[in-house]
Design brief:
The chain has about 375 residues and is an alpha+beta fold. The chain has two domains: about 240 residues, DD-peptidase/beta-lactamase superfamily (Beta-lactamase, 3-Layer(aba) Sandwich); about 120 residues, 3-Layer(aba) Sandwich (Beta-lactamase), CATH 3.40.710.10. It is built from eleven helices and 16 strands. The strands form five sheets. An eight-stranded antiparallel sheet has the order 3-2-1-16-15-14-13-12, with helices on both faces. Strands 4-9 form a two-stranded antiparallel ribbon. Helix 1 runs antiparallel to helix 11.
Length: about 375
C-alpha cells in the first residue's frame, strides 16, 4: 500500500544536515525529495565554496562520480530497445579485443568459461577490475593517458586478467565496466558518448547542467571539493593534486564516473525512471525496459552480494530482506557516488530522492549521509 510523505517530517532532513555542517563533517548538501511528481522538499544548506564561504544553491554543480553509471545504463538500454545491441551478446561482438580473456583462479590464469556479456557489465558481475588484483593491475599498468579517448583506452582493458569467471560472483566495478559500456554506446550509436547522452537523454530531460565538460559559466557554479585533513574539514583545489580529480578530460568521457550535474537535473532523470521511462510527455524508455532495469539480474545466492540489496541493470535494487542498516522501501532502486552523491526511486510510494555532496571521504554507497537521508525519508512516510 502506498504511503504519503509528510512535508513537515521531511524538515528533519534540514536539522540533521545542519548538525553535520555545524560539526564540520560536511561543507553542505543539496537535497530534493518528490512524491507523485510534486517536489515536497528542496533545500541547499552550507557552502558551495567552503574556503570562501560562498553559499550553496539548488543549481550548484557537483561531480556525480558513480551516479554517472545509471545514465550510461539508460543509454545502453535505449540502444537495446532499438535492436542495436543485445544484453546477452558477447562484448567481443562490439570490441573484438575482449575475445579470449583469462581469469584468475587459485592464483593461476585460466581461460574464461564464457565471454563477458553486456548484462555482466551492467550488473557488476563481469570480473574485470572488480577486486584488488584487477584494480591494482589497472592502476599500475593501464593509467589513463592525457591524450586517451575511450576509443584508444578501452581496448587495452582486455589485457586485465579477470578477478573471477564472468557471472559467477558480484561486487563492484568502480570504473572499467562502465567505461567499456560508454565505448559500446559510441560504437553502436556512431556518436561519441558525450554527444549521445546530450541528444538522447539530457536535451529531452532539460538537463542543461549535466555534461562531461563544463562551460566557463558552469565552472563558476561548480562546488569546491572538500576533505578532512588532520580531522579538519578543508577545501581542496582541483589543481592541487590532492584528490583523484575530475574523472574525465576534455576528450576522455569516463562512463564510470565522469559526469557533472545538479540536484535539479538529476531529479528530472529520477522522475523519468519513476515515470516508467516518460517525463513531461517525452518517452525515453519503454515501461518494460525500466522494469527490466529495476529487476534483480543475479541469483540471490551469488557470492559477493550485500545484505538487503542486489544489482539490477546499472542500479542497486532493494530486496526488502532484513538489513541492519537503514534502507529505502523494498523495490526501490538507484545508486550513489564516491563523494557523497546519492539517489533512489521508490516506485511503490511514487517518490524520488536526490542528495548532492562533494567530500573526498564521504564513503560512497555506504556514506552515513546517504543512510541518514534514507532514514529521514522513510520516517516521513505515513
Amino acid at each position: 500500500m502506498k504511503r504519503t510523505l509528510s512535508a513537515d517530517k521531511l524538515q528533519m532532513i534540514t536539522q540533521h544536515t545542519q548538525e553535520r555542517i555545524d560539526r564540520g563533517e560536511i561543507s553542505g548538501s543539496v537535497s530534493l525529495v518528490a512524491q507523485d511528481g510534486k517536489l515536497l522538499y528542496a533545500k541547499a544548506q552550507g557552502y558551495a565554496n567552503y574556503t570562501r564561504k560562498v553559499p550553496l544553491k539548488t543549481d550548484t554543480i557537483f561531480r556525480l562520480a558513480s551516479m554517472t553509471k545509471p545514465i550510461i545504463g539508460v543509454a545502453v538500454m535505449q540502444l537495446e530497445e532499438q535492436g542495436k545491441l543485445s544484453l546477452d551478446g558477447p562484448l567481443s561482438r562490439y570490441i573484438p579485443e575482449f575475445a579470449g580473456l583469462q581469469a584468475c583462479e587459485s592464483g593461476k590464469l585460466v581461460a574464461v568459461n564464457r565471454e563477458i556479456m553486456i548484462r555482466d557489465l551492467l550488473s557488476h558481475s563481469c570480473g574485470l577490475g572488480q577486486e584488488e588484483q584487477g584494480l591494482q593491475y589497472i592502476a599500475e599498468n593501464l593509467p589513463i593517458g592525457p591524450n586517451d579517448t575511450l576509443a584508444s583506452y578501452v581496448p587495452k582493458l582486455a589485457q586485465v586478467p579477470l578477478d573471477f569467471q564472468p557471472g559467477t560472483k558480484t561486487g563492484y566495478s568502480p570504473m572499467a565496466a562502465f567505461d567499456i559500456l560508454a565505448r559500446v554506446v559510441e560504437i553502436v550509436s556512431g556518436q561519441t558518448v558525450d554527444h549521445y547522452l546530450r541528444d538522447h537523454i539530457f536535451i529531452p530531460l532539460d538537463m542543461r547542467d549535466t555534461a562531461f565538460v563544463l562551460t566557463g559559466a558552469q565552472k563558476s557554479r561548480l562546488v569546491e571539493m572538500t576533505d578532512h585533513v588532520g580531522g579538519v574539514l578543508t577545501g581542496v583545489s582541483d589543481d592541487e593534486g590532492s584528490f583523484p580529480g575530475d574523472m574525465c578530460s576534455d576528450h576522455y568521457f569516463c562512463g564510470g564516473g565522469g559526469l557533472y550535474s545538479t540536484a535539479e537535473d538529476y531529479h528530472r532523470f529520477a522522475q523519468m525512471l519513476l515515470g516508467a521511462g516518460s517525463y513531461q510527455g517525452r518517452q525515453l524508455l519503454r515501461p518494460e525496459t525500466v522494469e527490466k532495469m529495476r529487476t534483480p539480474q543475479l541469483p540471490f545466492d551469488i557470492p559477493g552480494r550485500g545484505p538487503g540489496e542486489i544489482w539490477g541493470l546499472s542500479m542497486r535494487v532493494i530486496t526488502g530482506e532484513e538489513n541492519p542498516s537503514p534502507h529505502p522501501a523494498a523495490h526501490s532502486f538507484g545508486w550513489s557516488g564516491a563523494w557523497g552523491t546519492h539517489f533512489w526511486v521508490d516506485p511503490d510510494n511514487c517518490l524520488t530522492a536526490v542528495r548532492m555532496i562533494n567530500l573526498i571521504d564521504a564513503g560512497g554507497a555506504g556514506a552515513i549521509t546517504a543512510r541518514e537521508l534514507e532514514q529521514d525519508v522513510t520516517d516521513a512516510l505515513k
